[in-house]
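Lab meeting prep.
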Amino acid sequence: MTMKMIKYGVLALSAVFAFASCQTEKEALEKHHFTNKLYINTQSVSEELLVKAGSGDMVRTLNIATALQVEEDLTGVLVADTSLVEQYRNEYMMPEAVALPLSCCAIDNPEVVILKGSNASAPATITFTNLGNLNRNLVYVMPVALKNVTDINVIASKTVVYYVFKGAALINVVCNFSENRAGVKEWKTPEKFTNMRQFTAECLVRQNVAGRLISTIMGTEGGYLLRIGDAGVPDTQLQIACSTNHTNSDMTLTLGRWTHIACVFDNGYTTVYFDGKKVLDRANSGRSSVTWGAYGDDKDEVSGRYFWLSYSYAHDRYFDGEMAEVRIWNRCLSEEEINADTHFYTVDPYSEGLAAYWKMDDGAGTVLKDSSPNGNDLTLDNPTTWPKVSLPEN
């Protein structure tokens, strides 16, 4: 056999193999074409949603899709189906999961349609309501299933989406005040901070570092101030500085530990609570009213005697730690109110007498939003860090 004949033989065999390969690919394409399938169009068939006390509505959207365009309109219905909770328990090994009440789930436009020539439907809207009333110690599940589909195969693993609701920590992020301060150029409601004869100032604080003469939590230099330390006062001990200063050893913070402080001013008399326990009882502050003014155009005045968080008289008197849940009320909270369940960690922003409510959960930026309806936002001098936490601690 000549080399020429061998060459042609090899070429012929290559052509046969190439033809066979093309046939195989064509058959694969045809097979794919004739097995168009329907599915719920979502990346994950289980979504975990964290719920806090007072949580508002949560909204999700779902649609259906096919791998290829459909030749006729194709419909399905999305249904909240609590009978599938047992299936979830088995698949995800969560025997403790319970069904979310059907009253908490509403599906708008539940009939989803893939129009002829398309491969995806418009979305249905799923609204979850009354979540703040759920038991935070339970895990709730709401399965949403695709039903009433005809004339097309459905991918079995993509016919149900499980929405899983778990109680979140009441506080998940806090504000670091080290070498920083926050104040307000102009109160939106200045009358609420002027000549206050009754008020309550609250905060959750974690002092991380001591060693300086004075560290400031909040208030006005030379007016009424919640500060830590002083000449003759330990550098972890709270002092109420007013016309008359008051402190005692029961008002001592533990470094690295969160403490809820409530300071109640009643016509000149101050009562202080640490974690709901009374540590100062009706001490005479030496003045009958308190004004916490805004700094206006005098922000750069060294001893600026205005309302600040983490500042008084000099910049080295900052609070070296984190704060959360800072509140000012225009009334005296009772001992029972202060010790109410979860009060240390959250309150209703529309509570009676709440003048300002800085949750410190902004997580970014230099504005501390007022969660009350009064709009009294504070501004940090400098960018800060926002440590993640889980409060209350287990």
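Slide two material, second protein:
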Amino acid sequence: MPRHPRLAPALDHLTGSLFSELSSRIAGLQGEVFALHVGDSWLEPPPGARTEDIRHAEHGGLNRYAQPQGHPRLLDALQETYGVERARLLVTTGATGALGAICSALVSPGDEVLICAPYWPLIKGVVRTCRGVPRELDLYLELDRDLPPAEARRAVADRVASAITDRTVAIYVNSPNNPTGMVLREAELLGLVDAARAHDLWIWSDAVYEHHAYARPDVPLRELAPERTFEVHSFSKAWAMAGNRCGFFIGPQDPHHTAQVRKISTHTFYSAPTVSQLAGAEVLERGADWLQACRTAYQVAGDRAAERLGVAPPEGGTFLFLDVAEHLDERGLRGFLIDCIDRNLVIVPGTSCGASYGTFVRLCFTGARPDVVLRGVEVLAGLLGR
């Protein structure tokens, strides 16, 4: 019982940083640092959608709260862009705020959320802060991409079903995937839907990289399972607005579910920043050409990094996920990361993305200017003997 001076036991399973152990070493780096560990963008948002472009004289009330559901202009733009009824939309403080609100609304203490791995590093913590239990399911790297669609669908359904328990309430899936860069095919997504329907589970679809699918078109899960899917989106990744902290979700076809989650958001962050919402509306209304150019630039950056490292180009997203097992010594992955840091390269340990990935590292190829990324990639290539 967390009475003074004790804190909630859930905090024992959370880390304050992915680099808690090595943060002091990173802080002491001198010269050019290749910070390729955070999923960010070297680009600036489109002209007209930067914070200095949103002026009080033109909009008024920038210092005031927006409506808890979202600014009317942004809701209009989302409704037009995604073709869903307004009552299914909720604007949030980034995708993280969306997932936190959804989790709080759907998970009771002890309930389990099946997390398809490797995964976005913060999702397990989101579940734990809501007193849920995250359960990992190694999925993306286990897929057999040579199977015909019907067999691929059955294989995914069986794999997901094998990990479900009587405490499971939801499945979290992220495609295009952070960290693998994989874009799930429709048959694979349908297999996941089959398992969710068979066991009466919610689906949490993390679609923040929806606009950066290179190998094949992104298939929205909300269209495959509209009755049970919460689909989470963000302006951070698609529009280079990570600092704005603005995202949104599209709830299931019954708008009652979105209204219920809004109770949580109202009592946590209340509303997303007003300026950020207006910037989001601006890009949805006028940013199509910029988005296409951004997508092309990201794909080129990813292809170049992958080619230099001798791995397959990413199917989508902004990351490469590499198995460095052959280059680990008796110090293990921690030693390899120290070798990277000592050469001013900061990347993410694969264990942040799943317990099974203790020989992997994640690199973001959009977190710095392309020339800086390539110099960082050159450091990694040297350590890998490539």
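Talking points for slide two:
DSSP finds 14 helices and twelve strands in the chain.
The two ends are 53 Å apart (CA to CA).
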